Amino acid sequence: MYTSRLDLPEHVRHAAIALLQAMLANAVDLVRQAKQAHWNVKGPNFFMLHQLFDALHDTVEEFEDTIAERITALGGTADARVQTVAATTVLYDYPIAASSGEAHLKALAGSLGEFGKHARAAIEAAAVAGDADTADLFTGLSRECDKQLWFVEAHLVGSN
Description:
Layout: H1 10-40, H2 46-73, H3 82-88, H4 101-129, H5 132-153
Helix pairs in contact: 1-2, 1-3, 1-4, 2-5, 4-5
């Protein structure tokens, strides 16, 4: 951790960085899952879902950047290496056999729900650690994740 004039104690910064790093791995995974769906969706409503998944990718890519920049602002090193992400993400494994729109929607809905759950848990943990700004960052992620989940789940209404 580098020396900074940031007025948060070092132990608070360490705690926030750990929370952020865990969410960064999830965000990187979710970015790749959205692109996986974008590239591989087939069937009815292809074009609409292709665009939806691309927009989701772009939104979650902003999550990734916001999280990584907060880590570095706190004096840490953002670690989004493939090995780190694969070892630490808590999101569901994306089904490689998914091809139908419904299969991709269900997979993404599951991962968005899990991402949001962890963002909400991180809000409280960051607040308890003493970093209100990181708690606020997680609040913003949670709110936007819920919105993206709504967009995805709206396509599943009436399906099994």
